[in-house]
Amino acid sequence: MSRAAIFFATGFEEIEALTVVDILRRAGIEADMVSVTGEREVTGSHKITVKMDKLFEETDFGGTDILILPGGMPGTTNLEAYRPLMDKVDEFYEQGRYIAAICAAPSIFGHKGILKGRRACSNPGFESHLEGAEVCREKAVTDGHVITSRGMGTAIPFALAILEQLTGKEAVEQMKEKLVYMEA
């Protein structure tokens, strides 16, 4: 069974984070909601508080297949300021393991130099932070082991792009049917 870690910092974008958790869990993937705040409950940018599965410091990432960073403000800034998570992102990237970010969070990958020579997307207000990337306007972009997406309105395509990498296209088609997902 695949395993994902979705990281929550104060000010995360609720739809981006929880849509991914929901879709991955529906597909049978273990999707851990991980707090980087040291608290078991984290409040999003729209004042919705969510109970976490784990704290970062108690999480074993050995069996984790992908690290996922939701956007939101100041959630993205708070994720980037949390050094242990940034070290883990570097480790996964260097090992060729999957990393994913949506909305403002791909800016973190840009700041780290991860997007140089890659196709990537983000919230339009953060495209200047995609340092060295070929900026795309697609709903979700997978380039190697890096997945990026544009924002709240692309949360489902983002989750499906992650699902595809973990389980394949057939699982994505089955999930689209279950969700009654219609592409515009």
Structural notes for this entry:
Strands 5-2-1-6-7-11-10 form a seven-stranded mixed sheet. It has a two-stranded antiparallel ribbon with strand order 3-4. A hairpin with a 2-residue loop joins strand 10 (140-143) and strand 11. Helix content is 34%, strand content 22%. The protein has 184 residues and is an alpha/beta fold. The chain is built from six helices and eleven strands. It has one domain (3-179): Rossmann fold (3-Layer(aba) Sandwich). The protein starts with a strand and ends in a 5-residue tail after the last helix. Helix 5 (155-167) runs antiparallel to helix 6 (169-179).
Summarize the helices and strands and which ones pair or pack.
Blueprint: E1 3-8, H1 14-26, E2 30-35, E3 41-43, E4 49-51, E5 54-55, E6 66-69, H2 75-81, H3 83-94, E7 98-102, H4 106-111, E8 119-120, E9 134-135, E10 140-143, E11 146-149, H5 155-167, H6 169-179
Parallel strand pairs: 1-2, 1-6, 2-5, 6-7, 7-11, 8-9
Antiparallel strand pairs: 3-4, 10-11
Helix pairs in contact: 1-5, 5-6
List keywords for this structure.
6 helices; 22% strand; 7-stranded mixed β-sheet; 34% helix; Rossmann fold; single chain; alpha/beta; 184 residues; two-stranded antiparallel ribbon
Secondary-structure-based class equals alpha/beta
CATH architecture assignment: 3-Layer(aba) Sandwich
Gap from first CA to last CA: 31 Å
Q: Can you tell me the number of structural domains? A: 1
User: How is the biggest beta sheet arranged?
Assistant: 7 strands, mixed
The pLDDT mean sits at: 97
Rg, nearest Å: 15 Å
User: Any idea of the CATH topology?
Assistant: Rossmann fold
Count of helices? 6
- How many strands appear in the DSSP assignment? 11
Task: Tell me the CATH superfamily.
Answer: Class I glutamine amidotransferase (GATase) domain
Instruction: Characterize the overall form.
Output: globular
Low-confidence stretches: none
Proportion of residues in β-strands: 15-25%
| Share of residues in helices | 25-40%
Level-1 CATH class name: Alpha Beta
Order of helices and strands: EHEEEEEHHEHEEEEHH
Spatial strand order of the main sheet: 5-2-1-6-7-11-10
